[in-house]
Batch of 2 targets.
Target 1
Amino acid sequence: MIPSDLSGALDREQANAELFELLRIPSVSADPTRAADMARTAEFLRAKLGKLGFAARVEATAGHPVVYAERLQAPGRPTVLIYGHYDVQPEAPLEEWTTPPFEPTVRDGRIYARGSTDDKGQAYAHVKGAELLLSRGELPVNVKFLLEGEEEVGSPNLDTYLRENAAELAADVIVISDGSRFAPDVPTITYGVRGLSYVELHVQGANRDLHSGSYGGAAPNPINALCEIIARLKDDQGRVTIPGFYDGIEPLTDEEREMWAGLPHSDEAFAASIGVSALPGEAGYTTLERIWGRPTLDVNGIWGGYQGEGSKTVIAAKAGAKVSMRLVPGQDPARITRLIQEYVPQIAPAGVTVEVLDHHGGQPVKLSTDSPYIRAADRALERVYGKPAVFARTGGSIPIVAAFTEILKAPVLFVDFGLNEDAPHSPNESFAVQDYHNGILTSAYLLEELGK
Amino acid sequence: MIPSDLSGALDREQANAELFELLRIPSVSADPTRAADMARTAEFLRAKLGKLGFAARVEATAGHPVVYAERLQAPGRPTVLIYGHYDVQPEAPLEEWTTPPFEPTVRDGRIYARGSTDDKGQAYAHVKGAELLLSRGELPVNVKFLLEGEEEVGSPNLDTYLRENAAELAADVIVISDGSRFAPDVPTITYGVRGLSYVELHVQGANRDLHSGSYGGAAPNPINALCEIIARLKDDQGRVTIPGFYDGIEPLTDEEREMWAGLPHSDEAFAASIGVSALPGEAGYTTLERIWGRPTLDVNGIWGGYQGEGSKTVIAAKAGAKVSMRLVPGQDPARITRLIQEYVPQIAPAGVTVEVLDHHGGQPVKLSTDSPYIRAADRALERVYGKPAVFARTGGSIPIVAAFTEILKAPVLFVDFGLNEDAPHSPNESFAVQDYHNGILTSAYLLEELGK
């Protein structure tokens, strides 16, 4: 079959209009008050895939529903399972958005909206990619779509869904577009993702808030204590101090370190892009190595005491923080969570009680760079960008990747359409219109290449 | 003149009803939306004092108004200035109140309401004390009331008011009831108060919130940085590490340490009363010494990143905390604030920028225990409680005490009616009905004793 040039056949206006409609639904999976919006989003996707001739349905789970669709018209050809998620991060802090998070707005060639790049825009690019190919005839491979609604809260119910439907979901390769390319105009294939262990620390001091004058000097202060605990979780070399944290980690290979050192990266430009004067982290590793190949610990949120106007002289009864650790191959999220749960009480100051709640985790994964699927993706990307792809890892985590490899026993192929500067998870998240359109073309060409 | 027994003459029902009316007005000085309530509270007090035959007026300031009233019918007799404040702390966290903070409710002999003990209840006891004496004839001394509305926000405008009205406010002694007695049934005269330096720390990392996967390991995390800064402000002996912090402090005298060691205090009972297992603090000092006679540093509030439901994998752009230091004689609030403003940038981790905002301060004060005024208070208390008073200090701060001593050049007499267990500044603040009534009697007897 002759590789088609589909660029001219893509109705970009129509593609944008459909994505905007999808982005207008506030599908925040973490917010219990938005359950109805979640259902509306799932139905939107089911209806669209149904129109394209897919056998599509919305599947209930113990949490938010899954959208499953399949079109199996290529007997003897490979089966491709395309995974994406239609849920998005909370929009807070709302006041920092230039335009409303759920009213998509194009500025300077970018679509600004929560979920524009993570992951509605990238997932929908595959839907449009399939539609584009169908406009030229039958799909050259069997295609299955699995679009979930709980990725941003750790996919608590997807494992069960995968186990119960393993036969139906069976595929030769799983394609995921839920991350960032290395740089603009740099087609990227990602062969590794970090894992995640996410916990919440609760520190309790007195049985009530206390007057800091009447008690200051004798009453334990849970906020000071929480800060001490957090400060003790890392040493002055940026290393995590939790005993056993680094045990079993696969060291970076010289080949990887050389490959990454050769990528177009500048610490100065990177620091400037986020407006900071330094890039602190684990000693002995480059910035890319620290983000892609080394584990980290970051506090994602903290609270306690008086946060309002003016001053309040109080010693709070309790304080809390959300802490996440990014993990690399060789680290097991469940084990890391257990280690921090054992360690925090040991480093807690006298007089307070601590609790470490387990939010969720995700397995770190690394893939072989010479599989035929990665080669097919390489060819597809070259057809869109006119240059070969670079091989990178990502610092992000896709918790269900491990489930795919374990339960469906299929290799996972990461072909990302987004960029870090899209600011996923932040106010003013965006997705370049050009990247969205390239994603649609890449998806269509990838199905062609996989069909060869 | 024969000491009168006024106990039988006190209409307790009426006294309670009036206080409840006062407590129903949400006079939160820190909340800009409650300016009208502040004005209503001031007018309530002016009207009451006017009815008692005081020349009473509400005086505008650059902030919330001051209520001033005087009745000068005792030529040749001493003049007593009674200070109190009608503003209250914010009620947050509202959900922890058993009954609404501004709907006074009596349970188990206690009046539950914001401001019940700090300071509406204690200040109004003096108003009722004067009324009680007037029911028997003219006041035996000249009495002036100064009731301000900005004590809980650091009395930013009172200094100016005192300077501009120094002549009118002139007094032989200033009486303040805005604190706690040592224990139930223990009449207490407080001869020292701690000072205060209150600052707000702001830490800025990147120019926007970042995805903790894509940036974790390289981007500075302002929450981790804030925790490190706060942890570094104290050493493992509970001492504040700010260079020069302890310079010039008047050491506790052996006499004071012995006197306090003799007071009925049990660390076990104290810890149990606030539900903690230990009382951490500066090494080498007893609990009472740490609260009354030594400086401290406490974080009163902290915030940053995601505080909502579930998990959000974000590296916040900024974080902040409110930090207060209680000071003792020999420490100057302005100097301490300058020291921490110089120190924090020095201990801030790389990659973040910090800002230390000055909220407000208060001078520490210590008084001589053998003045005739303290003796008069001792006699008045003995008439109410049937036992001599104990001499204590308080860990709290009354920022304007220094202004009184400096500007009005009059000694300040602390006769407190409340208790620590009243939980001022906390949810479910309360004031024992009995303590309120004893306060009224103490106030009346004190005026008699001062008139001798």
Note: The mean pLDDT of chain A is 94.
Target 2
Amino acid sequence: MTRMLATALLFAFSAGACAADRESAPDYRARGKQALDVITGGTTAQVLAGVAETSPDLAQWITDFAYGQVVSRPQMDLCTRELVTVASLTTQGNAPRQLTAHVNGALNAGCKPEAVVEVVTQMAVYAGFPAALNGLAVVKDVFAERKITPEQAKQP
Amino acid sequence: MTRMLATALLFAFSAGACAADRESAPDYRARGKQALDVITGGTTAQVLAGVAETSPDLAQWITDFAYGQVVSRPQMDLCTRELVTVASLTTQGNAPRQLTAHVNGALNAGCKPEAVVEVVTQMAVYAGFPAALNGLAVVKDVFAERKITPEQAKQP
Amino acid sequence: MTRMLATALLFAFSAGACAADRESAPDYRARGKQALDVITGGTTAQVLAGVAETSPDLAQWITDFAYGQVVSRPQMDLCTRELVTVASLTTQGNAPRQLTAHVNGALNAGCKPEAVVEVVTQMAVYAGFPAALNGLAVVKDVFAERKITPEQAKQP
Amino acid sequence: MTRMLATALLFAFSAGACAADRESAPDYRARGKQALDVITGGTTAQVLAGVAETSPDLAQWITDFAYGQVVSRPQMDLCTRELVTVASLTTQGNAPRQLTAHVNGALNAGCKPEAVVEVVTQMAVYAGFPAALNGLAVVKDVFAERKITPEQAKQP
Amino acid sequence: MTRMLATALLFAFSAGACAADRESAPDYRARGKQALDVITGGTTAQVLAGVAETSPDLAQWITDFAYGQVVSRPQMDLCTRELVTVASLTTQGNAPRQLTAHVNGALNAGCKPEAVVEVVTQMAVYAGFPAALNGLAVVKDVFAERKITPEQAKQP
Amino acid sequence: MTRMLATALLFAFSAGACAADRESAPDYRARGKQALDVITGGTTAQVLAGVAETSPDLAQWITDFAYGQVVSRPQMDLCTRELVTVASLTTQGNAPRQLTAHVNGALNAGCKPEAVVEVVTQMAVYAGFPAALNGLAVVKDVFAERKITPEQAKQP
């Protein structure tokens, strides 16, 4: 998965109408779509459709800025980026839909199921047990949907 | 650094008078002190002294539970554990002292300065720009104290 | 809408058993009911019924204090008051029922649908994308219920 | 302390320009000032002076609503009310001045120092260790200022 | 660092027998189960089953640490501990399942229904009306399930 | 002020290397700098210098995305945008530096001092009194620095 993304990013860098300009948006849009496709498992279009209906600009910011400029930066691997996002959303505790998307995103980015469980349960120390318990409930649902057994979730 | 700690923890598992009982507290206290010494750079005693004065039990919970039972678990490396903690504290935005301790902790656990910057700046997407800016101010102070130059902070 | 409220407030000021005393509660209750009727579109009674059953005093505080003393103050128009409330609730991200009430409240107070979308999407910068996305989901439901089309939502 | 407050409340009930009307503000103002004087140890005037300078109305709401209508209700003793407030502020973790005021308030309302330590340290479970540690730092400063020794803080 | 870890390991070897040691986990597990049985009304097993399936260790931490070491401490009565937990969860506003458990827990620990209502409604002052309203909605559901009438809820 | 910004935006729209492409970054950078100069009162360079030292990319995102793509959108006036930002930051309660910047930003964007006080004090209802009190303390400092007297702060 990570190699696939790396190739994708190399490709993305060579694309775009203003290739000479490192700020050029088409660049970021291509990178953002590539990163989003890895995280959503190729369902980016459906994911953004609902947002785009009420705010096409917010959907564009997600692609161009959030994923094109930030999350797809080559300085850190996508699995670690998804784990810190899972930590942030478990801490916030009020965005179960986004947490579901990023627990899936972490697994789609090549993280081990056990790593996701470790991040969420570690939040019991830093954000409190209720945050960890509600985060774990989301993880449990994602594992069930992906047919990941508790045993597999414990394999390092 | 990470390998050294992993070895130490594996070794620690075979030590102690209650080796048969995986719940036995002395085990966890030893593991907790070891993890804390890595994270605090060997200043655990000073770090816990202030807490212990008003609540010796809270200081004990930090050693035995937070670090002995949770953070020192061998299922995930200490650098990743510190990065998700930095993400959680940057998201909360109200614990600068703890964020300072864990930015140092991430570096003491062998994380690259650049990784810490990436985690904190990525929070702009998930927790908002104010959270990322205040987190970055803490990172900047830690880097200054550790004489990490902006150039070094950019080396992957 | 705003004129209707202004008239309502003038009327409210001349009412009350302790008219001479600017603190007198009857005054505030009348003002609070007027403001609540604008915000709830005249469904104040139903809105407060559920609260009053378990805590009649909390229902009273909402009318006399929250709306009678604070939200109905003449120093700022009700549309702007509702927009800053939408910003606060989108930021908190854990009160979808109240956000639904105040997205409706903003529209009932004469705010343009586009202004509500602008406030919620701007929160992506200050509270993070997950907060903005969940806020926008509430806006989308309210627009659907009020038969506001995406096109209308874009008319300034 | 509790008896003093009880007497104060009885007195307050018989006062006020609209004595027949249980909502009448003067009633609440008297009750609010009495409760505030217990919590602030008689320094209410100084405490509210800073607020009143920029927003006299907010200062009035604190007296009439927050303390006159809510905190002084006879249904629960003032010590328990201060302990749940300390729990709320320790959980929020971003209002050290208010937490300082309410740790003092809990002690002024007759709570044992140990009870305040128990509430703040218990928040480690429900709001995370950073929240408990920062809350405890406030408690430590208040105890130091009041010359409460760690030993006294442990007496039930 | 290596020498430091070696020293730590030597310390681990010198750690003593469990039985005499007040930190010994079985102690805490027994205390934790007892406290949890009071709070859950004897349904601890069911409550922890879901958690244990995905993270048996988190379930163990809840029993041994959260309830065995913290909540069951003799320094404060269980009713007051549950009330401050209700205050923390009402303030957080994003953990309705845990708030439901602790509103039941407060009643199971012998708190008066009225005290629970007072704590939740008082949060309107410290955490805002939306937090108090959503907390009260949880209280209302618990009271309905326990057949506590609004009249009973008002008996001190 | 608003007219100045409007002119600035018209100018910005006609600039940029990829003028045909509405996503082209140079456009957004020009718009972002213009909006930032209004909000910071012309001190954008100093404001971003500290950020740029540790993370030049975060500084760029603030200019190009936060202010160039979001805050400078013509669909809502800059004063209202700053008031909803003040509401969000007062609600978060953990970013006093950013709140200071946006209280100044609201005044620089042409908001009346009284409107800023109304927004912050209204947060007492939606985010609690501690959030409103800490927000008001920031407002008080900004007013003092700008020599805005309490009397002026009350002029509508």
Note: Residues 77-156 of chain A form a domain with the AhpD-like fold (CATH 1.20.1290.10).
